[in-house]
Design goal:
Elements: H1 15-28, H2 32-48, H3 53-68, H4 76-112, H5 118-128, E1 135-141, E2 144-150, H6 156-172, E3 175-183, E4 186-193
Antiparallel strand pairs: 1-2, 2-4, 3-4
Helix pairs in contact: 1-2, 4-6
Length: 196
C-alpha cells in the first residue's frame, strides 16, 4: 500500500496533548501521523455541519447515555396514539409507570455524573433530547429551584405523564416537589432539597 504523497506541515500543540494523542494512537494500533490526521479530518467534517466539535461530542455523549439507559426513538404520532388508547382506562397506572421510570433515570444519572451538577445535566438532557420541548429553564430561587418546560406540540396527556416522569427524577436525586402546575404543553415544578 503506497503512502500518501500529501505535503506535510508542522503545527504547534501543547506537549501534554501530544502525549495523550500518542497514547491514544498506540491503543488504536495506528501511527501518530495517521491517527492525528484522521482526528483532524473528522474535526473538519464537524465544521462542515456548521457545528463546533464540542457540541457534536456533547450530543454524542447524550445519545450514548440515552441508548444505554434504554431509551428508544419512536414516532411522536405513534406514541400519542398509544397514550390516547391507554390513558382513559389506565391513567393511574400510566402515571405510576412514568414516575417509576423517572426514579430509575434519576438514579442512573447520579451514577453516570457523580462529579457534575446533576440538575444542570438533567436540564441539558431535557432541552437536547426527544421530549419535544421547545424551552427548558432551570432557575435557582430563594427557596429552591423552578423547572419550566414548554412544548408547542405535547398533548395534555403527554404533558401530565412527562410531569410524573420529572417528579420521579427530581425525587430520586434528593429533592422534593413543593408545587406543580401542568397545562397542555407547559410544566412548572417548584422543588427544594429534601430535609433529612
Amino acid at each position: 500500500m503506497a503512502k500518501s504523497s500529501r505535503e506535510k506541515k508542522l503545527i504547534r500543540v501543547p506537549s501534554d496533548i501530544v502525549a495523550k494523542l500518542n497514547e491514544a494512537a498506540n491503543k488504536a494500533g495506528k501511527s501518530f501521523y495517521d491517527y492525528t490526521s484522521e482526528l483532524l479530518e473528522q474535526a473538519l467534517r464537524c465544521n462542515e455541519f456548521g457545528r463546533p466539535l464540542k457540541e457534536i461530542m456533547d450530543f454524542f455523549e447524550l445519545m450514548t447515555l440515552q441508548r444505554n439507559a434504554g431509551l428508544i426513538i419512536t414516532f411522536s404520532d405513534l406514541l400519542n396514539y398509544l397514550i390516547s388508547l391507554l390513558y382513559p382506562k389506565q391513567e393511574r397506572e400510566l402515571h405510576e409507570k412514568w414516575y417509576e421510570a423517572g426514579v430509575w433515570y434519576g438514579t442512573y444519572l447520579q451514577v453516570k455524573f457523580r462529579n457534575r451538577n446533576i440538575l444542570d445535566v438533567f436540564a441539558k438532557i431535557l432541552s437536547e433530547s426527544w421530549w419535544e420541548l421547545n424551552e427548558v429553564n432551570l432557575a435557582k430561587e430563594r427557596d429552591g429551584f423552578t423547572l419550566r418546560c414548554v412544548s408547542f406540540t405535547l398533548s395534555l396527556e403527554r404533558t401530565k405523564l412527562l410531569t410524573s416522569f420529572l417528579e420521579g427524577v427530581i425525587n430520586s436525586i434528593g429533592y422534593e416537589v413543593l408545587e406543580k402546575d401542568c397545562i397542555r404543553g407547559m410544566i412548572i415544578l417548584h422543588f427544594t432539597e429534601k430535609r433529612s
